[in-house]
Structures are given as C-alpha cells and as structure tokens.
Design a protein that fits this description.
Layout lengths: L2 E8 L10 E9 L2 E16 L6 E16 L5 E11 L10 E2 L3 E6 L2 E7 L43 E9 L2 E9 L11 E11 L2 E10 L2 E12 L2 E10 L13 E11 L3 E10 L6 E11 L2 E9 L5 E10 L1
Antiparallel strand pairs: 1-2, 2-3, 3-4, 3-19, 4-5, 5-6, 5-7, 7-8, 8-9, 9-10, 10-11, 11-12, 12-13, 13-14, 14-15, 15-16, 16-17, 17-18, 18-19
Length: 319
C-alpha cells in the first residue's frame, strides 16, 4: 500500500523575497519518493503595447519529482514540469507538460541530463533574477542582457548536460546543449556555458562565460544584504545583442536592484537595467507583502526596454 507523507518545509528568505511558508506532499512508491510542488498566481496586468492593454494574468506551475537513493549514497531523480499561463489576448491558456530532466548526485556533485537549464538559468547563485518586479517579474536587472540558452520548463526542451560541483561556499558548473537535435549531430549549433559562484557572509559573487551558436557572452553578478537593505547588481556582454556598434560585439549591459524590508512582512524594491541592445532602459518599483502560509501579495509599475509602461497586481501562493 502506498504511504502518503505530508512534510512542511520553511523556505529560505532571500534578500529579494518576503518570508513565506510552503508545504510539499510526497508519496512513497516502492523504493522511490514522488513529490509534488509549485505555485499558483493570478491578478491583473497592464501593458500599453498589448492589443488588450489590461487583462487577467495567471499561472499554475506543477513540478513532479521522483527520486531514489541507493545503498552507497547515490541519489537518482527525474523531474517534469507542467504549466498553464494566460494567453496574450487575456483568455485562459491550456496546461502543458515539458520534457523530463534526469539527475544523479552524491556529496557536492550533481549531474543533470535531458531538458536541463544552462548554467545561467540554473540555481547556482547568480543574482540576475533577484528582484524581478511584480507578480510576473517582467522588469528586472537582466532585461538588457538577453537570455542566453537552455532553460528547464514546460514545452519542448533541448537535450543537454549540466554538471555542478560545490565545495563549501564555492560552486563551479558547466553545461552543454546540442540545439540542432539528432540530425545536426554534436558540435552543430551547440551551446556551452561555464561559471562559478562564491558566497562569503551575506554576499554572493558569480562569473559566467559561454557560447551560443558562435555568439559569445559573459556575465558578472553580485548580491547581498546589509541589515534591512538588499541589492543585486549585474554587468555583462552578449554578442547576440549587437546594436549600432561596428565591432560585431554586443554592447555592455548592466543592472541594479535594491530593496528594503519594512518589518517582517513587506519588502519594497526598485530595479534598473540599461545598455545591451535595448532601445531604452528598463526601470520600475514594486513590492512583496507576505500574507502567511506561503501566500504573498505582489505588484509593480515600470517601463520596459521598448518604452512601454507595464503594471500588475495580484497574489501568489506556493505549495
């Protein structure tokens, strides 16, 4: 008989998130544990460049993870993600599962294959997503850098490999994706990334270098907190973002987010991003207010890199 286990886990509060609380449910089946988790969000979003400027925005995300640990301490796992978002016209989108990601880990070593994230998108300590504003996170410090490469999620994904090794507060990682598929063969239209992060006290620094179909990119981030204040900063260059310069290279992109925690429940944030290949800077202000039990009220107003005004307001709960 399957045994149902209920476990409650306190999420670690970061410099750019109000404290919250989430519960996860796991099912024991034979030698394996199957866990379910994710979040749901909904509210109202405004974008002056959209045909329907004001629409109901929503997302339901479900992660399903199966894992087993061998007698010698090796942990094997597999994960799939399903997600439903609103459509651009405001109608409700359909729920869709993505490709599977597989993992083996022991000690500080973790190896992932399949529908992976590259080093840039993997949770290795880079601060480029810290402080994304509002319910949808449509404005943040990486807006002018340009997203390079593979990202785990729903929908079709590129097959690749990601290796991550942590030694105390120091982490190194590398990833490779063959974006052309089987017909192209290894080395055709491929993407690779290498990076490292180091945490000291309340601060984390990270550096990354990669190549996506012959477009090179590099990135340096730093984030941390001092009392009730927090910050994340980014500087990088992506050759895919060639603007009006004549040297065939991308312009330097940069960004900064700062926040202040008012008491235990409310965090106010301000974000700015410039450079890169953007027509204009991206900037805005937002807030996160904890309602308890893993539920937060979130909102923002700002301008994106196309000089378009955006705003949103809504709730999110993690499960």
């Amino acid at each position: 008989m399957k045994k149902v286990l209920f476990a409650s886990t306190a999420l670690v509060a970061t410099a750019f998130a109000a404290p919250n609380f989430a519960s996860a449910q796991s099912v024991s089946a034979g030698n394996a544990d199957i866990s379910f988790g994710g979040y749901a969000r909904w509210g109202v979003g405004y974008n002056e460049d959209r045909d329907e400027e004001t629409i109901i925005i929503s997302r339901f995300r479900l992660n399903i993870n199966a894992s087993v640990e061998t007698d010698n301490g090796l942990r094997f796992a597999a994960t799939v993600r399903g997600q439903a978002d609103e459509n651009s016209d405001g109608t409700a989108g359909t729920f869709e599962f993505g490709g599977a990601r597989y993992q083996v880990s022991t000690g500080g070593l973790r190896v992932r294959v399949g529908n992976i994230s590259g080093v840039y998108d993997d949770a290795t300590g880079f601060a480029h997503f810290d402080g994304d504003l509002g319910l949808e996170g449509t404005i943040g410090i990486s807006d002018t850098f340009g997203f390079p490469g593979a990202a785990f999620g729903n929908g079709a994904g590129d097959n690749g490999i990601l290796v991550n090794y942590a030694i105390g507060d120091f982490t190194v990682a590398g990833s490779y994706v063959d974006e052309s598929g089987i017909d192209g063969g290894l080395g055709t239209d491929d993407e690779w990334q290498v990076g490292a992060t180091y945490t000291f006290g309340d601060y984390t620094v990270g550096a990354l270098y990669g190549d996506d179909q012959d477009d090179e990119f590099w990135l340096v981030t730093v984030g941390g907190s001092v009392g009730a204040f927090g910050f994340a900063a980014l500087i990088g260059e992506n050759d895919a973002n060639v603007d009006d310069n004549d040297n065939g290279e991308g312009d330097i992109a940069y960004g900064l987010t700062v926040n202040y925690e008012f008491g235990a429940a409310t965090t106010v944030l301000a974000s700015f991003a410039g450079g890169g290949d953007a027509d204009s800077e991206a900037f805005g202000v937002g807030f996160v207010h904890s309602l308890g039990a893993g539920t937060t009220l979130r909102g923002m107003v700002g301008q994106d890199t196309d000089d378009s005004v955006k705003a949103d307001l809504g709730v999110r709960f993690d499960f």
